[in-house]
Design goal:
The protein has three domains: 88 residues, Rossmann fold (3-Layer(aba) Sandwich), CATH 3.40.50.720; 205 residues, UDP-N-acetylmuramoyl-L-alanine:D-glutamate ligase; 142 residues, Mur ligase, C-terminal domain (Protein-Tyrosine Phosphatase, Chain A), CATH 3.90.190.20. 34% of the residues lie in helices and 25% in strands. The protein is built from 16 helices and 21 strands. The chain has a ten-stranded mixed β-sheet with strand order 8-7-9-6-10-11-12-13-14-15, with helices on both faces. A six-stranded mixed β-sheet has the order 16-17-21-18-19-20, with helices on both faces. Strands 3-2-1-4-5 form a five-stranded parallel β-sheet, with helices on both faces. It is globular and about 60 Å long.
């Protein structure tokens, strides 16, 4: 792309903030608008971006070459003005596809695990001497942000199924972590979502590589007819690469990877819990192995990697409680979270603080949410937070009482509803001690409960 003046709508959000930063580093003139002045926007301003903190048609003039926005933006004055002025407008994924079209793209797709796997892959390449550019979906302390501008033509990026945005981000090589029913606010049903995944992998030609979780039947289904070279990994013996776990306890996990009878990588130790994180590391190892990259980088990453922001993010309260914050919002993510909690803290009392968000999601997975809390001791829930794409029919179809009842019926755990982060903090402060684990779960600001234990 020729150097342009680019205007980002929602420049402080996780989807656009890192891309805007890389554009600045590449020499583009960056402008943007966001409702709130925060750390991310202040950092961009220090690097030279011009940012407005109020939507207005006056924010955009004829000097702007391109406007970039996220899929969730429906309408705003800047888009209306850009249309009137004939300025090109692109969604985030379209722009990212254009920005990386000449790169060797390694994509990470799937219903779950994209952000963590993207970070592991990016760090492992860098640790192997391959300075790739990373377009991540979560904060990584190693990058001090979401993204990293590398010095090679390799780009690592998330390729998300929402809004079929991954059609703009077809990789020369692609990891597929999982395929599970989701984004039903966009897809009419699970079959339509799986068709989108199938269409995406049809776009991979015979020179492409797909590294996929072969234990997941849906993964095999959506990749079956792709012309790309395919390599499957997992615990089941029919996979091309088979995982053997040697240890899984509060000290971490130790495992090896075999291709048939050949040991590819032995006794890898990771310090983040759960079988899903073992698979995230294995996906990266298989990708690097198949592309001919040295595997020493993934061993270096395993030694120090503690996860990305809001994914099993762990702190200790000044009063001794273990505090875990997680972005989990799909019920299978919630269940996997508590599998990991019990691996690391088998004997502690576990409190789940769940802030459900998006009525459409809760409505479609009410029973599954009920089953997701079997490994906790007590659940605190809040009222459901609406999402931008919730309609009135969604909002009237389910409420927090339904979530509470589902957890009581299926997980058979005590549940209490408390609204207000300070009220939740006060409740937990008097019920927990150094033998307790407090988990805050959700895509909103529920982590603020954790923060109150840290001051």
């Amino acid at each position: 792309m020729k150097k342009q003046k680019i205007f980002f709508i929602g420049i402080g959000g996780k989807g656009l903030n890192g891309i805007a930063k890389i554009c600045l580093q590449k020499g583009y003139d960056v402008y943007g608008v966001d409702k709130v002045k925060k750390r991310e926007t202040i950092s961009l301003e220090k690097d030279g971006a011009k940012i407005f903190y109020r939507h207005s048609s006056k924010n955009i003039g004829k000097e702007i070459d391109l406007v970039v926005y996220s899929s969730l933006v429906k309408n705003c004055p800047e888009i209306k003005t850009a249309k009137k002025l004939g300025i090109k407008i692109m969604k985030r994924a379209e722009f990212l596809g254009e920005l990386t079209k000449d790169d060797y793209r390694i994509c990470v797709s799937g219903s779950h695990g994209k952000s963590t796997t993207t970070a592991i892959l990016g760090l492992s390449l860098i640790n192997s001497g391959i300075d790739a550019t990373i377009y991540g979906g979560a904060y990584a302390k190693e990058f001090d942000g979401y993204n990293h501008l590398g010095k090679t033509n390799y780009s690592v990026l998330e390729s998300c199924e929402f809004d079929r945005s991954f059609f703009n981000l077809v990789g020369r090589a692609t990891i597929l972590t999982s395929v599970e029913k989701g984004h039903l606010e966009y897809y009419k049903d699970e079959n339509e979502m799986k068709e989108a995944f199938s269409d995406y992998f049809h776009m991979h030609n015979s020179d492409s590589l797909i590294v996929a979780n072969g234990d997941d039947l849906n993964v095999r289904l959506v990749t079956f007819q792709s012309q790309a070279r395919k390599k499957y990994f997992g615990f089941n013996q029919q996979n091309d690469f088979v995982i053997k776990v040697h240890q899984q306890d509060e000290n971490g996990s130790v495992f090896s990877i075999y291709e048939g009878s050949n040991l590819i990588l032995g006794n890898i130790k990771i310090y983040i819990p759960g079988e899903y994180n073992i698979k995230n590391f294995v996906a990266v190892a298989v990708m690097m192995y198949e592309l001919g990259f040295p595997l020493g980088g993934i061993l270096e990453t395993a030694k120090t990697f503690s996860g990305v922001g809001r994914r099993f993010e762990t702190h200790k309260a000044r009063t001794g409680q273990i505090l875990i914050d997680d972005f989990a919002h799909h019920p299978s993510q919630v269940k996997s979270l508590f599998d990991g909690v019990r691996q690391f803290y088998p004997d502690k009392k576990v409190y789940a603080v769940f802030e459900p968000r998006q009525y459409n999601l809760i409505k479609n997975f009410l029973r599954e949410y009920g089953k997701a809390f079997e490994k906790v001791d007590e659940v605190i829930i809040t009222d459901i937070l609406p999402a931008l794409n919730d309609g009135q029919q969604d909002i009237s179809s389910v409420n927090a009482k339904d979530v509470e009842n589902s957890i009581k019926v299926y997980s058979k755990k005590p549940v209490i509803k408390i609204n207000g982060y300070n009220n939740i903090y006060k409740y937990l402060k008097h019920r927990t001690d150094q033998d307790s684990v407090i988990t805050t779960i959700g895509t909103g600001d529920i982590y603020k409960v954790r923060d109150k234990f840290l001051v």
